[in-house]
Write a structure and sequence with these properties.
CATH superfamily of chain B: P-loop containing nucleotide triphosphate hydrolases
CATH architecture of the domain at 147-370 in chain A: Orthogonal Bundle
Radius of gyration of chain A: 27 Å
Low-confidence stretches of chain B: 339-346
Number of helices of chain A: 16
CATH architecture of chain B: 3-Layer(aba) Sandwich
Structural class of chain A: mainly alpha
CATH class of chain B: Alpha Beta
Distance between the termini of chain A: 37 Å
Helix content of chain B: 25-40%
Largest sheet of chain B: 8 strands, mixed
Structural class of chain B: alpha/beta
Largest interface: A-B, 41 and 56 residues
Shape of chain A: flat
Oligomer: heterodimer
CATH topology of chain B: Rossmann fold
Number of domains of chain B: 1
Radius of gyration of chain B: 21 Å
Strand content of chain A: under 5%
Order of helices and strands of chain B: EEEHEEHEHHHHEHEHEEHHHEEH
Strand content of chain B: 15-25%
CATH class of the domain at 147-370 in chain A: Mainly Alpha
CATH topology of the domain at 147-370 in chain A: MetI-like fold
Order of helices and strands of chain A: HHHHHHHHHHHHHHHH
Strand order of the largest sheet of chain B: 6-7-8-3-9-10-12-11
Number of strands of chain B: 12
Mean pLDDT of chain A: 81
Mean pLDDT of chain B: 85
Chain lengths: ~375, ~350
């Protein structure tokens, strides 16, 4: 129907393809080692992955520094609090101060810069001091005891939300305007709009208190008494049973937003020429919906997966309180309550780092799925 | 072979515009296409050319619908089948294997996230009929096809669509269109949005392909130059109807519908003196508000009261074999001369 105006197209008939693998000059015989090194450096710099990793390191540094500054300028010096505690336990003031600063790995009398450099050194060597409430334990060990449980629940929740949200979203786009679409749009908006801690609280109240079908009391904690951690089905099954409610809670919000966004993305892709052409080519419907529609519609959703990870890890503080799930969020709450600064500091840094790593992985995966990103990046 | 390869009867296509409203984009089209012929569908933007082209493969977008008629194809196995009676799977097997389409703006015809060779692999595998297409076999076949359109297989096969220029994509799409050796090829504005040099070489390749494989072709174009060059039959469309049809020779040397004459007069001749170009006054009618009688009457210098009242049917002018018969839907066809002044009078 449409006959475009005869606009002169920009490129000539047999233009070179837009992408070029390498831009460096060809190696010549006269190249010495420094030149080769320079070329290797340039190639590493040109690699998208390398720059993306560098960016992540920068973000982790930024988060750590902000955490350090917050801790530093917060009222109430942790050393004095701890020394005060030791003091009241019968230690002399000087001795208490020395012991405390030794435990926390922090010299209260040094200048900000010295403290900051010491902090950075600790960060690089993964030595973030010891817990104040449990001085014999390193902060990192403490955090790593709680963190995997949260990452497991959040990770499983996001995976669940991605699978369910993307499939429903796609089905909605294929049946635009149907009853299914209308019902799912309402459910999606509801899930996105209502905070997940309220939804999960409602699930517990209805399932446990009203109907009595949800064994909420048994589901608290990480594993049931008597189950030993190990690589066996009993342990995994039990861990999943205990993580079930947190996983559902984490999945709620993400599912709603993935559903709605996937519907929008799929609707748009369905109008693309290459989908019509694929139909004209007589491709099987399954291949078109997976390889042509789904794969392209997913592209704008994938970055949102990383975004959701960050939001959910932050939200774990409330969810884990409500569901009594001893993960990093609960640990953080306790540490804040106990004014256990080193633990708080380490927890914030480790949580931020895990989100940064998740989004790094997502970005690297995206490059693999969408070949155009690499080119855009090189052009920029 | 006296049976046409494609017989279209009374084909009408409408687009839904509301809950109970629709506009008719193509109405009552009859068409016989014989093996090896190449037909140019010409007309202004919005006259229904592309809709008709898509309709020939039952590829209408969501709101489009074939409201009446029949589309009988003679298949490769010699049997005849009505496209409108086919079930989904039958239709899928028909497409690209019996009739393929080269789309307007090949820019977006390829899936941006897979390589060119994978497009060939998908097409060949989904029409495999039990044959196993290994990567090597696909690349060999695709390479062969790309070479017939003068593309370097080594470079193109492993490229992503965005790594090719517009001209290369258009050629690659033509190569993909002939992958299953279809009998009918529908080409929708195959050279629009390409520069002149690329247009030239694409036209040449289409010529060669036709000579070599004997495809039956339908060109949809607003470029009369292209129609004159590639087509041996021309059908002019206006407001969803075919208003003149005939051999390219008859049409270009003696158009009998004032609209066709106007279209020809609006093109600069390559040879001879260069008269001032005549444009057709006014605009095509909106599909929602069609004038009574002949749809062209508000823009026509010959229009009389009859033209404004009655639906004008195609009037047989010169009978010729194999669908080449010259016919025009105009009451005053004997007054239409190939004279610029008369045809495009205000």
């Amino acid at each position: 129907m449409t006959a475009p105006a005869a606009a002169p197209p920009p490129e000539a008939g047999s233009a070179k393809p837009a992408s070029r693998k390498s831009v460096e000059p060809q190696p010549s015989v006269a190249d010495g080692p420094p030149r080769i090194a320079a070329r290797v450096l340039r190639r590493v710099w040109a690699s998208y992955a390398f720059r993306r990793i560098l960016q992540s390191v920068f973000v982790v540094w930024l988060v750590s520094t902000i955490t350090f500054l917050l801790m530093h300028f917060m009222p109430g010096d942790p050393i004095e609090i701890m020394a005060g505690r030791l003091n009241s336990a019968g230690m002399s003031h000087e001795q208490a101060m020395a012991t405390a600063s030794n435990i926390v790995n922090y010299d209260p009398d040094a200048g900000v810069w010295t403290q900051y450099l010491g902090f950075l050194k600790g960060l690089v060597t993964l030595d973030l001091g010891n817990s104040l409430t449990n001085p014999s334990k390193s902060v990192l060990d403490h955090v790593m005891e709680y963190l995997p449980w949260t990452l497991f629940a959040v990770g499983a929740g996001v995976v669940l939300a991605t699978v369910v949200g993307l499939s429903i979203g796609m089905a909605m786009a294929y049946r635009r305007g149907s009853a299914f679409d209308h019902v799912m749009t309402s459910i999606g908006s509801f899930l996105t709009g209502v905070p997940n801690y309220i939804l999960i609280a409602a699930v517990v109240v209805i399932g446990f208190t009203v109907l009595g079908v949800l064994p909420f009391l048994d589901m608290r904690g990480r594993v049931s008494a008597g189950v030993e951690p190990g690589f066996n089905l009993v342990f995994f099954g039990d861990a999943l049973f205990h993580a079930f409610l947190p996983i559902i809670a984490f999945a709620f919000t993400a599912t709603g937003s993935f559903m709605l966004n996937m519907k929008a993305a799929t609707t748009e892709v369905l109008t693309e020429d290459y989908v019509t052409v694929a139909q004209a080519r007589g491709l099987k419907p399954g291949r078109i919906s997976r390889g042509y529609v789904g794969r392209n519609a997913m592209l704008p959703i994938i970055p949102q997966v990383a975004l959701q990870m960050g939001t959910l890890v932050g939200g774990s503080i409330v969810i884990e309180q409500i569901l009594d799930y001893p993960g990093a969020g609960q640990m953080l709450m306790q540490a804040i309550g106990n004014r256990d600064y080193p633990v708080v500091q380490a927890a914030v840094i480790v949580l931020a780092t895990s989100v940064v790593i998740a989004s790094l992985i997502v970005d690297l995966v995206l490059v693999k799925i969408d070949p155009r990103i690499k080119n855009q990046d090189q052009e920029a | 072979m006296t049976d046409p390869i494609l017989r279209v009867r009374d084909l009408s296509i409408a687009y839904r515009t509301g809950r109970k409203e629709s506009v008719t984009a193509v109405s009552g089209v009859d068409l016989d296409l014989y093996e090896g012929q190449s037909l140019a569908l010409v007309g202004e933007s919005g006259c229904g050319k592309t809709t008709l082209g898509l309709g020939l493969l039952r590829l209408l977008p969501g709101l489009g619908e074939i409201t009446s008629g029949s589309l009988a194809y003679r298949l490769k196995d010699g049997s005849t089948a009505d496209l409108l009676q086919m079930r989904k799977e039958q239709l899928r097997r028909f497409r690209w294997n019996e009739a393929a389409m080269v789309f307007q703006g090949a820019m977006n015809a390829f899936n941006p996230v897979i390589k060119i060779w994978e497009h060939f692999a998908d097409t060949l595998r989904d029409h495999a009929d039990g044959k196993k297409w290994t990567k090597a076999a696909v690349e060999a076949r695709a390479g062969e096809l790309l070479e017939t359109v003068r593309l370097d297989p080594d470079r193109v096969l492993q490229s992503y669509p965005h790594e090719l220029s517009g001209g290369m994509k258009q050629r690659a799409l033509i190569a993909l269109a002939i992958a299953l050796d279809p009998q009918v090829l529908v080409l929708d504005e195959p050279t629009t949005a390409l520069d002149l040099l690329t247009q030239r070489s694409i036209v040449q390749q289409l010529h060669e392909l036709r000579k070599r494989f004997g495809f039956t072709m339908v060109f949809i174009t607003h470029d009369l130059g292209l129609a004159a060059e590639l087509a041996d039959r021309v059908a002019t469309m206006y407001a969803g109807r075919i208003i003149e049809t005939g051999s390219a020779r008859d049409i270009f040397h003696g158009p009998k519908h004032p609209y066709t004459a106007g279209l020809i007069n609006a093109v600069m001749p390559v040879k001879g003196d260069r008269p001032a170009l005549e444009s057709i006054p006014g605009y095509p009618p909106s599909l929602k508000a069609m004038p009574d009688g002949c749809a062209f009457n508000p823009r026509c210098a010959f229009a009389t009261d009859e033209c404004r009242r009655d639906r004008i049917e195609l009037d047989l002018l010169t009978e010729r074999p194999l669908g080449m018969t010259h016919a025009a839907a105009c009451l005053h066809h004997d007054q239409v001369r190939f004279a610029r002044k008369e045809a495009a009078n205000v």
